[in-house]
Specification:
Amidase signature (AS) enzymes, alpha/beta, 11 strands, about 475 residues
């Protein structure tokens, strides 16, 4: 029989529901694994063992008493360390806020607890979800379980590392320009950026108000869909929250793609062919063929150049982040890490005209994408630039932040987008593709994502870690 960590969320949930294993047994297994892996991977900033054991015993008593809440009952989860958990410091990976204790749970933690989830700890994040893999900061940087000398991607770095390593079955990340999807791609997991407004952001440190989104990160697509069912919901205390019905997303994974029309956005990587690796492009073509063979109709779709989307997203992100941090940049600049200062500075050099022109262009691009979705159900887009780069190279290379990302366009438009595991390259490192849907149609994304994962995801291959 596989070990508990190898079962993932859905496998573990099934055994808990059948009372073949208990929440206490599950938690103890994950706590042991997390504590053994963390000195190598630096994926957790905090492991809250005492509180988690209390909650696991309570969940066990509930289930034994016939009060089973559903598939997250007794399942451990972790959250990126920009997300509030009552009584725990929300450090944001920064010296500036290292001792700031949250007074209440964030909305996403509230919802996971209400579903019976067991909070296990806080995962490492690049500073304020903006800085790079900075070795001068109090935590991290998180390491990639497939090769600890490689980058996890950012900024939901620890969440991706912990899930890929089997240190937790579910982690919550945030995504402003790819911060769920890039780490998911580099670490070989399933990462969903839901539609803007689908999940409440109450209790999450803002980076860019009009772009930020939270979402689930898991080993498999079906695990991800189960998690989103618990996370989604309207929150009147979050101005960005949209009152719209949830969907039975976990049912989507059994439906296949027959009857769907999928647009292939090849020109994004063709325009930037020197930026995207042969491996990433091959994964895209393999996924396109697989979806067609599974019964989807595939057609070419052409949008504005990738750099138009990327530039508008970056200007808006930098401007809004500068507004969030204006006071501390004036008075506490020495508390920030050097990588973070470098990444925030462009926001203070922008003019009001720059920001307004980016917003104007954003409106045009949103309309363009909406028009494209009049003729297709989904878009297939290249995933990351390539395999995870060496972490030391990222820390030295300031140009990485200016490289056009195929993730950023869909923060700009607010669209749901998911990076899906698409196998391994010849060196055994993860590849991915990105599937994008109409606003609030995560259901169709999960249909296609499951087909790709089943066909080329290699979910039976895990990183080899000597623990």
């Amino acid at each position: 029989m596989p070990e508990i960590w190898e079962l993932g969320l859905s496998g573990t949930s099934r055994l808990i529901g059948e009372r073949k294993i208990s929440p206490v047994e599950v938690l103890d297994h994950y706590l042991d694994r997390a504590n053994r892996l963390n000195p190598t991977l630096h994926c957790f900033n905090t492991i809250d063992a005492e509180r988690a054991r209390i909650d696991a015993r309570f969940a066990e008593a509930e289930i034994s008493g016939g009060f089973y809440k559903g598939r997250l009952h007794g399942i451990p989860f972790a959250v990126k360390d920009i997300i509030d958990v009552e009584g725990v410091a929300t450090t944001n990976g920064s010296r500036l806020t290292i001792d700031e204790i949250a007074e209440t749970d964030s909305a996403v933690v509230e919802r996971l607890r209400a579903a019976g989830g067991i909070y296990l700890g806080k995962t490492e994040t690049q500073e304020f979800a903006m800085g790079g893999p900075d070795f001068s900061l109090p935590f991290g940087p998180a390491r990639n379980p497939w090769d600890i000398e490689r980058f996890t991607g950012g900024s939901s770095s620890g969440s991706a590392s912990a899930v890929a390593a089997g240190a937790v079955p579910l982690a919550i990340g945030t995504d402003t320009g790819g911060s769920i999807r890039t780490p998911s791609a580099y670490c070989g997991i399933a990462g969903m950026k839901p539609t803007y407004g689908r999940l409440s952001r109450r209790g999450i440190t803002p980076q860019a108000f009009s772009l930020d989104t939270a979402g689930p990160m898991t080993w498999t697509v079906v695990d991800n869909a189960i998690a989103l069912e618990a996370l989604a919901g309207y929150d009147p205390h979050d101005p960005s929250s949209v009152e719209i019905a949830s969907q039975p997303w976990s049912r989507a994974t059994a439906l296949g793609v027959r009857g769907l029309k999928i647009g292939l956005v090849r020109h994004f990587h063709e325009e930037e062919r020197d930026r995207f690796s042969h491996d990433s492009i091959s994964a895209f073509e393999m996924a396109a063929l697989l979806l067609k063979d599974a019964g989807a109709e595939t057609v070419e779709v052409r949008l504005s150049p990738l750099r138009h989307y990327f530039a508008a997203q970056r200007i808006i992100m930098y401007g809004e982040a500068a507004a969030v941090h204006e006071h501390d940049f004036r008075h506490n600049l020495d508390q920030y890490g050097p990588f973070t200062v470098e990444r925030f500075l462009p926001g203070y050099l922008l003019t009001a005209v720059d920001y307004i022109q980016a917003c104007r262009r954003r409106g045009e691009l949103v309309r363009e994408l909406a028009e494209a979705f009049r003729s297709v159900d989904l878009l297939l887009v290249v995933g990351a630039l390539g395999i995870a780069p060496p972490i030391r190279n990222v820390a030295r290379d300031s140009l990485v932040n200016g490289t056009p990302s195929a993730n950023a366009p869909f923060n700009l438009t607010g669209s749901p987008a998911m990076n899906v595991p698409a196998g391994l390259n010849a060196d055994g490192l993860p590849l991915s593709v990105q599937i994008v849907g109409r606003n609030f149609d995560e259901f169709s994304i999960y249909r296609a994502a499951q087909v790709v994962e089943t066909g080329i995801g290699c979910r039976d291959i895990r990183p080899h870690l000597a623990v």
